[in-house]
Amino acid sequence: MTMDDELLNRLGGDRIASRQIDELIGLARGMAADGDINQAEAEFLQKWLAANVAISQQPLIRTLYERINEALADGVLDDEERASLLETLGSFSNRDFELGEVLKPSTLPLCDPPPTLSFTGKTYCFTGTFIYGQRKACERAVVERGGVSGGLSRKTDVLVIGAYATDSWKHSTFGNKILQASEWREEGRPISIVSEEHWTRHL
Fold first, then answer.
1. Is residue 153 within a helix (H) or strand (E), and if so which, with residue range?
2. pLDDT digits (tens, 9 = 90+) for 125-141
3. Which residues are listed as membrane-spanning (predicted)?
4. Contacts of 82 (CB under 8 A, 6+ apart)
5. Per-residue buried b or exposed e for 7-16, using 16+ beta carbons within 10 Å of the residue's own CB
6. Of 5-9, 15-19, 163-167, 197-201, highest mean pLDDT
7. H or E segment at 148?
8. Which structural domains are found in the chain, ordered by start?
9. Sheet of strand 148-149: strand arrangement
10. Predicted TM-score (pTM) of this structure
11. Going by fewer Cβ within 10 Å, which terminus of the chain is more open, N or C?
């Protein structure tokens, strides 16, 4: 293969990837528009992703495909899986990211500097959409290390924000948890707000 052929192939691949992402964003917007996603929509999206994942170099498409396969593994989309999928679709349809990149949590109120994390006896809460896996998998990782995981409360020690948080997080479904945790931290409560990337470094 000549260098010109290689370049043409790569450019062709980029065009396909860009078209796929545009189509996925359109699907995501349509499905997330009414604030709900039903079983039929999830199954349609699963089929679309199955057809596209083979020719896709996009980590976003692969991650969403894995996530929807997990959600539909038992044939039923439960409430938690529906909410998680809706958050994921919402973050895709806000197109403020570079193709193939994890969204930058630039405006998120993360602790700076980020704290050293421990697990034994500590209570963790997860919000957003995670590369690590579904929220249940993240919670299991904490419990396996001696910690506790649950909803956000005044007893929460660490709030972990998923990597696919967009700059429009304040308007997203998980923004309330982040704002509440920020308020408590400003009041002097010992709650840490960290990114998924920081959390996974301590696993």
1. none
2. 998 878 888 888 999 99
3. none
4. 36, 37, 42
5. eeeeeeeeee
6. 197-201
7. strand 148-149
8. 3-93 (no CATH), 123-201 (3.40.50.10190)
9. 148-149, 123-127, 158-161, 192-195
10. 0.57
11. N
